[in-house]
Design goal:
The protein contains 3 helices and 7 strands; from the N terminus they run E-H-H-E-E-E-E-H-E-E. With about 160 residues, it is of the alpha/beta class. The strands form 2 sheets. Strands 5-4-3-7-6 form a 5-stranded mixed β-sheet. Strands 1-2 form a two-stranded parallel sheet. The longest helix has 30 residues.
């Protein structure tokens, strides 16, 4: 079975590389210090600080493993057509039902963070926008019903 590739922009890959380096250095140093302090409290069987630090250590190590896998299987994708929405595009859309505008950056799944306006090309909105041009109306199937968006601008 072939390994899954993770589509991402060059900037997105660099961002993941920075996070990985930070976790491998500061993250591991911080958790080692927390474990050292927690051990100094004595009996580990009833030491909630130690249990919490071990849990945090497991989360950091799991994230490091996840990032290493994603970076090892990264596929850098850059915008091919500057006039159409593609990976790396920054798209401003207007929801036709209420004229609310929103701006999204189309990124790979590994980079997506809707709170920061970064949506995956695999998400319902991302899929609907891919390949569309300025002025186009796209329909997104959502649990609350179909949403229609007009593409206002595309930047890369």
């Amino acid at each position: 079975m072939a390994a899954k590739t993770f589509k991402m922009t060059a900037a997105g890959k660099a961002e993941l590389e920075r996070e990985l380096e930070s976790l491998k250095t500061e993250g591991r140093i911080d958790i080692a210090e927390k474990l050292k302090v927690a051990r100094s409290y004595g009996d580990l069987s009833e030491n909630s600080e130690y249990d919490e630090a071990k849990s945090e250590q497991a989360k950091i190590e799991a994230r490091i493993t996840e990032l290493e896998y994603q970076l090892d299987h990264a596929e850098i994708v850059e915008a091919a057509d500057k006039d159409a929405v593609s990976m790396g595009s920054v798209v401003t859309v207007k929801r036709l039902s209420d004229d609310v505008e929103a701006t999204y950056e189309i990124v790979g799944f590994a980079q997506s963070n809707p709170a920061e306006g970064k949506i995956s090309d695999e998400s319902p909105v991302g899929k609907a926008l891919m390949g569309s041009k300025i002025g186009a109306t796209v329909v997104v199937e959502a649990p609350i019903g179909n949403l229609e968006f007009e593409i206002i601008s595309i930047g890369n």
